[in-house]
Amino acid sequence: RNMAGAGGSRADNGYGSQQQQPRRRKGPGALATAYLVIYNVVMTAGWLVIAVGLVRAYLAKGSYHSLYYSIEKPLKFFQTGALLEGSLLIPKYLPGIVPSSVVLTAFQVMSRVFLTWAVTHSVKEVQTEDCVLLFVVAWTITEIIRYSFYTFSLLNHLPYLIKWARYTLFIVLYPMGVSGELLTIYAALPFVRQSGLYSISLPNKYNFSFDYYTFLILVMISYIPIFPQLYFHMLHQRRKVLSHTEEHKKSE
Question: Which of 24, 77, 139, 248 has the greatest number of beta carbons closer than 10 A?
């Protein structure tokens, strides 16, 4: 069994979604593999650009406050690029390769794009909040590791260090990112209520109303059942993948 087959995984750690390598039934063909490798290399490079931007801005300012503006454009671009990952890769490869819920995986992709555009971009007042930096840093580190993991797995040459980081650092990064996301949505609530952002009031010709303020509260509540499922799933995957790796090393 190759390295990718023995321990590689496309299951998500709460910050994106792609294929998982254990229990592969049938992998992508040569053309699809080439596309996936190129896609993952580009995404790895993109998140590295974001990481470098954060470090440079911090060194220039001498402060971690309002670092969001230094990486706003690349963050929007590469986080939105996850929609391409979700729309093309999940339906085509995930059901036959990964024993996990496509619904949960789609939630992970959409929630991050939603937070990027419908909250942080739309409510300018939250962009200076320190909680934004929490999820930006967590996303950045997670995605660099995740896309590197996918690239090396597709090439059947996965370094143990990357595998270990993929299945260990999420223990801290996932709660950190979720905390930043929830705090950012919470910080946006007063401004959404005051401005009536994206809300539709009655009466109108469609006889339809929508309260974006209430919707954001429901989004926050949705984290309660979903976060534990994803987190404990990754803990289970960590035990399975890393234990298999240790057993493989002992048998050599």
Answer: 139
Contacts 24+ apart (CB under 8 A), 211-214: 213/189
The predicted structure's pLDDT at residue 89:
54
Instruction: Name the catalytic one among 143, 150, 181, 213.
Output: 181
Q: Indicate if 143 belongs to the active site.
A: no
User: 177 vs 20, 91, 92, 96, 151, CA distance in Å?
Assistant: 22, 26, 28, 29, 23
CA dihedral sign of residues 127, 76, 164, 177: positive
What's residue 107's pLDDT?
A: 76
Q: Does residue 169 lie within any of the structural domains? A: yes
Strand partners, 210: 200
Cβ atoms of 9 and 166 closer than 8 Å: yes
The domain of 179 spans: 30-200+207-245
Q: Which of 174, 212, 231, 252 is catalytic?
A: 174
Does residue 16 sit within a domain?
Answer: no
Q: What is the pLDDT of residues 140-158, one digit of tens each?
A: 999 999 999 999 999 999 9
| pLDDT beyond 90 at 129 | yes
**Closest alpha carbon to 211 in 202, 221, 224, 223:** 202
Answer yes or no: is 5 within a domain: no
Quote the number of domains for the chain. 1
- Asked if the structure places residue 23 within a domain, the reply is no
Kindly report, residue by residue over 200-224, the tens digit of the pLDDT: 999 988 899 999 999 999 999 999 9
176: nearest Cα among 137, 218, 148: 137
C-alpha to C-alpha distance for 252 and 249, rounded to whole angstroms = 5
Reported pTM: 0.83
Mean pLDDT, all residues of the chain: 85
174 in catalytic set: yes
